[in-house]
Design goal:
Layout: E1 5-8, E2 11-13, E3 21-25, H1 42-54, E4 59-62, H2 75-82, E5 85-87, E6 89-91, H3 100-106, H4 110-119, E7 127-131, H5 139-155, E8 159-162, H6 169-179, E9 187-190, H7 198-206, E10 210-214, H8 221-224, H9 227-236, E11 243-246, H10 264-278, H11 280-295, E12 296-297
Parallel strand pairs: 3-4, 4-5, 6-7, 7-8, 8-9, 9-10, 10-11
Antiparallel strand pairs: 1-2, 1-12
Helix pairs in contact: 1-10, 4-5, 9-10, 10-11
Bound molecules: zinc ion (ZN).
Amino acid sequence: MTGAAVRTVLGDVAPEDLGVCDAHDHLFIRSAALPGQELDDAGAALSELRAFAALGGRAVVQWTPWGMGRRTEELPDLSRRTGVHLVAATGLHQAKHYDERVLERVYGGLSGLFVRELTGGPVRAGMIKVAGAYHRLDDHARHVLAAAAEAHHATDAPIGVHLEGGTAALDVLHLLCDTHGVPARRVILGHLHRFPDARIHRQAAETGCFLAFDGPSRTHHGTDWRLLDSLAALAEASHAGQLLLGGDTVTPAARSGADGPGMPFLLGGLRPRIERELGPDVASAIFIGNPARAFAAHWRRP
Ligand SMILES: [Zn+2]
């Protein structure tokens, strides 16, 4: 891993300096598909980060892609004020999250846009976030995943994938890795928590990719009780080194200062259970060692 670095909003840091990490979350997000549920309050973002830091949290990866109100330019200040490393994202979500005319302007030049945001300034992104469709890949997903692969080859950036309802994991891996040549260990599958199919989890893990699970929330209530079992099954199958966990807070109500449980629950609620049930080594891999490897890259400019 010599020379690899995690690209934060304050600059590149050595993977071993990243520390306890919430590997998938949001401080700011806005979607045309979810009016009235914006995360756009900088004061609330600051409080949530402070609550996470108070429990030993040292890094948060914001998976909000291009054009969804991610407010990347405000992240350095939040990072300085809380001491929490922040990683920003470029990339593109499903079409429904955008105004059609806005999407049209960038659609033909996505890989160039991603590369500019990963390597240009003033605040650089440290990952590419893309999305699949429900139990399949539609034309939009294929177009965006191809652009992400191209930007990965140009920069070595990791690719994080929103799996719709946790589905289509194997289709995503096939397209990114087999068709477009992205090494599986540079791919992070997100939202597996939402579709706890142990066989598919294991097949995905066998490729070598990272598997990101979401923390509990009202949206995930139906599958929350499967989280520990899912993690345990993968750890028992020798995949503990590929597991990640994030809070994925996407609405104001889900924050710790509102209905919760928010970012701090990962450390105050889940970590002690993971330590107890799966052992301190697995917990440390999930919160420290794995995110350091998943988000570190040998950054290059095209
Ligand atoms: Zn998310």
